[in-house]
Design goal:
- The chain is of the alpha+beta class.
- It folds into two domains: 65 residues, Orthogonal Bundle (434 Repressor (Amino-terminal Domain)); 98 residues, Jelly Rolls, CATH 2.60.120.10.
- Helices cover 25% and strands 35% of the residues.
- The strands form two sheets. The protein has a six-stranded antiparallel β-sheet with strand order 1-2-3-10-5-8, with no helix packed on it. Strands 4-9-6-7 form a four-stranded antiparallel β-sheet.
- A hairpin with a 2-residue loop joins strand 6 and strand 7.
- The chain is globular and about 45 Å long.
- It starts with a helix and ends with a strand.
Length: 181
């Protein structure tokens, strides 16, 4: 986990420097507090998936930018786990800059919920439930998806993922950054 904290710290610093942003400006663009951004850069805090999404959206980079680890050997994969271990996200493929998509494997603990703020305009997400049941909220309207079902939606609105069951929910999320990244 220490290597991941260092990777996240380095990635955030790299983005800020490349954009010429202060912590204050990064906070304004991402909606994440200056204090939290500073803690992440110093490796003192591990963000939630929702916070990491806000940072990725604010910097206009794919979510997997923060998960990719160049120190991994071929065939190894990195994953991101929330501090409370309620959600684990793992890229299934590296980000494809030409096609502009991330393919992520997501696990949500029994009873857990993850809330996501709106992504950049034009971002489309497709979810495919592998095991369990997913309650997906789009602007407060809930949709129930069973194993084997898929759904596509505009991810540039607030959305939430909820696991109503007592077993781990597993689904794939294909995110298309059509107008960004």
């Amino acid at each position: 986990m220490e290597n991941w904290h260092q990777h996240l710290s380095d990635a955030l610093k790299q983005l800020r420097q490349a954009n010429g942003w202060s912590l204050t400006l990064a906070s304004e663009r991402t909606g994440v507090s200056k204090a939290m951004l500073g803690q992440i850069e110093r490796g003192e805090s591990s963000p939630t998936v929702a916070t990491l999404w806000k940072i990725a959206t604010g910097f206009n980079v794919p979510f997997s930018f923060f998960i990719h680890d160049s120190t991994l050997q071929e065939g190894e994969t990195a994953s991101f786990s929330q501090p409370n271990s309620q959600m684990i996200v793992r890229p299934l493929l590296p980000y494809d800059a030409k096609l502009r998509f991330d393919l992520l494997a997501v696990e949500l603990a029994p009873g857990a919920q993850s809330d996501s703020s709106a992504h950049e305009t034009g971002v489309i997400e497709q979810v495919v439930v592998l095991e369990g049941e997913l309650l997906l909220s789009l602007e407060g309207i809930w949709r129930r998806l069973q194993a084997g079902e898929a759904f596509q939606f505009a991810a540039d609105v607030a959305h939430s993922y909820h696991n109503p069951l007592k077993v781990t929910l597993r689904f794939h999320s294909l995110i298309h950054y059509l107008a960004c990244a």
